[in-house]
Write a structure and sequence with these properties.
Layout: E1 2-4, E2 7-9, E3 16-21, E4 29-34, H1 38-53, H2 60-68, H3 73-78, H4 89-114, H5 142-156, E5 160-161, E6 167-169, H6 170-173, E7 193-195, E8 200-202, H7 207-219, E9 228-237, E10 249-259, H8 264-279, E11 285-292, E12 295-304, E13 321-330, H9 332-337, E14 346-353, H10 354-362, H11 375-378
Parallel strand pairs: 5-9
Antiparallel strand pairs: 1-2, 3-4, 6-8, 7-8, 9-10, 10-14, 11-12, 12-13, 13-14
The structure holds 3,4-dihydroxyphenylalanine.
3,4-dihydroxyphenylalanine binds next to strand 13 and strand 14.
């Protein structure tokens, strides 16, 4: 037996081909004609085992390449089987398998002791008792912050949160809200249709949730379900060209109060309270007459511009006022469509875009920032409430 580098070479004169490559040098490949006796094979296994036992190598990956790699000792010695005489093959196979298991076990031990589980890393040791790296903490999205704030303000006034599906049918999104088929006001709320005849669409506002809640109350003929005092937060969709001021999806909070003898003064006072809680006591409000098919009378509410304090700037287009929501007294047709007696009950409703409130509150100029997931933008809300 002769040794070349790390590779033991078996030599005899019987004329079989045998190739052992030094696993640490892919170049150094020697072909020698040999014939393997059982004794030679066992000797070779013994020598290799001794080498492994006295091994000073503690780099698991280097060990793996040297012994278990495609050009390693184990593969090479396994290749000897073909040179073993037939009557010895069974025993040789068992010995070779034992040897392979022995090497694999040694490799597992090395991996554990060097803490090196990945063949790609070359760390020699790691202190597993060290504390782990900090995980970076996220923060709440500004839309969630503002939504939660709006909810908590209205909850203090006794409003409960109601939610509904984002995929709606035509009745709940339009028809029940006094927007029958072919009504021109539908043009202002074009959306994405999922199916047609019957129509299924992505809701254009959370007023559809108001309809669902009124229907529940209507079915029971008001029993135990009236008055209704709810706010409906959620995502809504419109077929809009995306720009700094518009998007094909955004978020709303709508509100509904249905009882007996509700007045426009109740509506004004509720919204005035909301604005003061949201933006501070100095903010002024004004109501402008407007039109929505589902309310009569209808109004839009403006607040004094937070940027210039009413002086006039680019945000308020030099008017000193910014529009924040639509509102009005619920149209009797809507109540009737939902099965509520409009001779007995009435109420008010309002709806606002959360993005718009957030833009005003945090002075954000581009609506697209809310959905781009840019960490530099989102990080600025760490600690915001
Ligand atoms: N649904 C309206 C929209 O999305 C907003 C709105 C206006 C809701 C007046 C209301 C309301 O409940 O009374 O543009």
């Amino acid at each position: 037996m002769q040794e070349l580098g790390h590779v033991p070479i078996l030599l005899n004169d019987w004329g079989f081909s045998f190739c052992l490559c030094n696993p640490l040098s892919t170049v150094n490949c020697i072909t020698i004609l040999i014939f393997v006796t059982m004794e030679q094979l066992l000797n070779q296994i013994k020598e290799l085992k001794e080498k492994i036992i006295t091994n000073v190598e503690n780099d698991a990956e280097a060990f793996r390449i040297k012994y278990l790699g495609t050009k390693g000792f184990v593969k090479a010695i396994m290749g000897e089987m073909k040179n073993v005489a037939t009557e010895n093959k069974k025993e040789a196979g068992q010995r070779l398998n034992e040897f392979k298991l022995f090497v694999e076990e040694k490799y597992e031990q090395l991996k554990l002791s060097s803490g090196n589980n990945s063949p790609l890393t070359t760390h020699h040791s790691q202190d597993l008792t060290l504390p782990a790296d900090d995980l970076p903490l996220g923060s709440r999205h500004p839309i969630s912050l503002v939504k939660n704030k709006i909810i908590s303000i209205f909850q203090r006034l006794g409003f409960a949160v109601a939610e509904g599906p984002e995929v709606e049918d035509d009745f709940h999104n339009f028809t029940a809200l006094n927007l029958p088929e072919n009504h021109p006001a539908r043009d202002m709320q074009d959306t994405f249709y999922i199916a047609q005849n019957p129509d299924w669409l992505l809701r254009t506002h959370t007023s559809s949730v108001q309809v669902r809640e009124m229907q529940k109350a209507g079915m029971k003929n008001g029993q135990g379900k009236l008055p209704i005092r709810i706010i409906c937060p959620g995502r809504v969709y419109r077929n809009e060209t995306i720009s700094a001021r518009a998007h094909c999806f955004f978020h709303q909070v709508e509100g509904l109060y249905i009882a007996e003898n509700v007045s426009f003064a109740d509506l004004k006072q509720t919204l005035y309270f909301f604005v003061q809680e949201m933006f501070g006591k100095d903010v002024k409000v004004r109501f402008r007459p407007s039109y929505f098919p589902f309310t009569e009378p209808s109004a839009e509410m403006d607040i004094s511009c937070l940027i210039c304090g009413g002086e006039g700037c680019s945000v308020c287009k030099k008017t000193g006022w910014v529009e924040i929501l639509g509102c009005g007294m619920v149209h009797p047709n809507v109540l009737d469509n939902c099965g509520i007696d409009s001779n007995k009950y009435n109420g008010f409703a309002f709806g606002m875009g959360i993005e718009r409130i957030a833009m005003l509150k945090y002075q954000i100029k581009d609506l697209r920032l809310f959905s781009e997931n840019d960490v530099r933008f989102l990080k600025q809300f760490t600690g915001a409430v």
